[in-house]
Amino acid sequence: MARQKIKIKKIDNATARQVTFSKRRRGIFKKAEELSVLCDAEVGLIIFSTTGKLYEHCSSSMKDIITRYNQHSKQINKLDKTLPLQVVKSMSAELQKEFADKTQQLRGLKGEDFEGLNLDGLQQLERTLETGLKSVIEMKEKRIMNEIGALQIKSIELQEENNHLKQKMAMLFKGKSPLLGNLDVSCESMNNVCSCNSGPSLEDDSSDISLKLGLAFP
């Protein structure tokens, strides 16, 4: 029958917790002793219980082990303080060299300070210029192709819109739309109204005036 796996969490029952502590303390001390004997290791183990009681196990002398531990910790602290400074100095030197190289390269790209370059430097500058020129040409061609594509799309859209307008105009001229028919009827009605209400013409008025003037002088 397989052993049931115990879930690792705090044991709430004080008695059960003390029993488990005693059993596991003896087990870990046994493991520490085995490690010391099998691997010839210097082992020191310190345990405080919940009541504050001290339990310890060491392969030689606990005092010697603690002294050795303290000395080792001091050496580690010294290394921790000096190591970042060395790293910073190394990084600073690398950055300064990189900055000098980039500055020299930039001056070369501007056509300045060729005298300070040897043959290898001039060849490197030539390769850099060729690579840069190639990138510029590729980017230029890409932009031109993008603009041509956009213009082609715009041309197609305008052509479709023009064809649509032509179709609408053809439909309007082929058969009168209801709007144009109503407009013709309205214009004809207005003409009829104007002809009915216009009254005597200008010639009739002038005849009456002449007649009246003739009667005034016998």
What this model shows, in words?
- The chain has 218 residues and is mainly α.
- 75% of the residues lie in helices and 5% in strands.
- The chain is built from five helices and two strands.
- Strands 1-2 form a two-stranded antiparallel ribbon.
- The longest helix is centred in the last third of the chain and has 56 residues, at 119-174.
- The radius of gyration is 54 Å and the shape is elongated.
- The N and C termini lie far apart (158 Å).
- Residues 177-181, 183-187 and 196-218 have low confidence and may be disordered.
- Residues 85-175 form the K-box domain.
- Its main location: nucleus.
Task: State the main characteristics.
single chain, 218 residues, mainly alpha, two-stranded antiparallel ribbon, elongated
What is the gist of this entry?
This protein is mainly alpha-helical.
Chart the SSEs and their pairings.
Elements: H1 14-39, E1 44-48, E2 54-58, H2 62-109, H3 119-174, H4 178-196, H5 202-216
Antiparallel strand pairs: 1-2
